Amino acid sequence: MQTFLNLFGPGTQGGSATQDSPAFQTGQTNQAYRNQANYGEFMRTKLPVFFEAKEPLEAEDWLRVIEKKMDLIRAREEDKVRFTTS
């Protein structure tokens, strides 16, 4: 019985994905997609709703929470405006 390392380890011929192979390119595409945030992920972070602030620090705290949620889902700069205004 062959192990995973025997089949796909360094220096093997059988089944290894090179940079030109479709398997490698698909993996890169999937990785890029996983690194991009989507609106559903953003909404699943259970965002606090901002109605009003009697003190400026309340608004600042809300913004800080939103920024942390954006970092959590790895939102791109161009998505941040779209996510927060939707």
Description:
The chain has helices at residues 4-8, 22-35, 39-43, 56-72, 77-85. The chain has a domain at 37-86. The protein is built from five helices and no strands. With 86 residues, it is mostly helical.
What's this model, at a glance?
This protein is mostly helical and 86 residues long.
Q: How many beta-strand elements?
A: 0
- Briefly note the structural class of the backbone: mainly alpha
> Mean pLDDT, as a whole number?
73
Compute the number of helices: 5
The N- to C-terminal Cα distance equals 54 Å
Largest sheet: none
Q: C-alpha Rg, in Å?
A: 21 Å
**What percent of residues adopt helix (DSSP H or I)?**
55-70%
Overall spatial form: elongated
The run of helices and strands is HHHHH
Strand proportion: under 5%
Which spans have pLDDT < 50 for at least 5 consecutive residues? 28-32
Quaternary organization: single chain
Task: Write the topology of this structure.
Elements: H1 4-8, H2 22-35, H3 39-43, H4 56-72, H5 77-85
Region (Disordered): 1-24
Biased composition (Polar residues): 15-24
